[in-house]
Design brief:
Length: 246
């Protein structure tokens, strides 16, 4: 039979074995606990310098805030939309009546507006703006089907742009509607380029004038021509849906 070592040796050995477990347990615990600071600070660097954290008090300032307000006129990086005329359609708190600086009314601008309107707006509002676009027609038909609206969805009739109230909208407001939408209509600010939204607004004004013009709006020297055209296309509401300024 192998003789057992003396008791004191067994005890010392057991305690030493237990003590050996402590360092790995401490290391594992420190590794598993998230902490901004290093567990062992040998060099303090500037970790403990006095400072005011954001949203805290600082009695040094009259308003008691440690965090100072940005200086008036500060421009955030990437912030380029300070021109309210160009980006909101607003001048001095009122809807702009003119195009923003650098853009001028021209046949080219209206042609561009017409092209963009025909792509983005006519589907609902119709080429001539009477609120009778293809998508709108289809949705209205689905809404009034005998089985009721498909999947219980609803549809709001696209407004006629010749509605007396809409006809009064200043240019800047039309631009803003094209950008941000209005009530049930979504905005097109992310799909349509900014200058193009101005071109569309100008074109909507043109469309409105085209459907609500009197002989006084026609230059006298070409009034004669117009009379001829009128008699030629005698049918009322002739080809309004074809749209277009020529
Ligand atoms: C998906 C269909 C749809 C498209 C596309 C669309 N609209 Fe509309 N629009 C509507 C609806 C619906 C309304 C009426 C919203 C309401 O009354 O809640 C409306 C209303 C308007 C109004 C009248 C706002 C008023 O004061 O009542 C204007 C102006 C207008 N849209 C311009 C545009 C322009 C410009 C575009 C193209 C950039 C465009 N819309 C594209 C559906 C559309």
């Amino acid at each position: 039979m192998i003789p057992l070592p003396p008791r004191w040796m067994i005890f010392t050995g057991a305690i030493a074995a237990l003590a050996l477990v402590i360092p790995p347990v401490v290391i594992a615990r420190v590794r598993a606990t998230p902490d901004q600071n290093r567990a062992v600070h040998i060099f303090f660097d500037m970790d403990f310098q006095p400072k005011f954290k954001s949203q805290s008090n600082n009695p040094l300032f009259a308003d008691g805030r440690a965090q100072r307000v940005a200086v008036a006129g500060t421009v955030a990086k990437g912030e380029t939309k300070l021109d309210t005329h160009r980006f909101e359609g607003v001048v001095d708190g009122k809807w702009a009546e003119t195009l923003p600086a650098g853009m001028s009314m021209s046949k080219e601008l209206l042609a561009r507006g017409q092209q963009r309107f025909n792509i983005y707006c006519s589907v609902c509002h119709g080429y001539a703006g009477y609120g009778d676009g293809t998508v709108n027609k289809r949705a209205m038909a689905l809404m009034s089907s005998s089985d009721g609206p498909a999947n219980g969805t609803s549809w709001v009739q696209a407004k006629s742009l010749h509605d007396p109230a809409v006809r009064e909208h200043p240019l800047g407001m039309l631009y803003n509607i094209a950008t941000n939408g209005i009530r049930n209509m979504a905005g097109y600010g992310t799909q349509i380029d900014n200058d193009d939204r101005w071109a569309i607004a100008a074109y909507v004004k043109t469309l409105q004038l085209s459907q609500n013009a009197s002989m006084q709006d026609v230059p006298p020297e070409i009034r004669g021509n117009l009379k001829k055209a009128e008699t030629a296309a005698a049918a009322p509401a002739a080809d309004a849906t074809k749209g277009g300024v020529k």
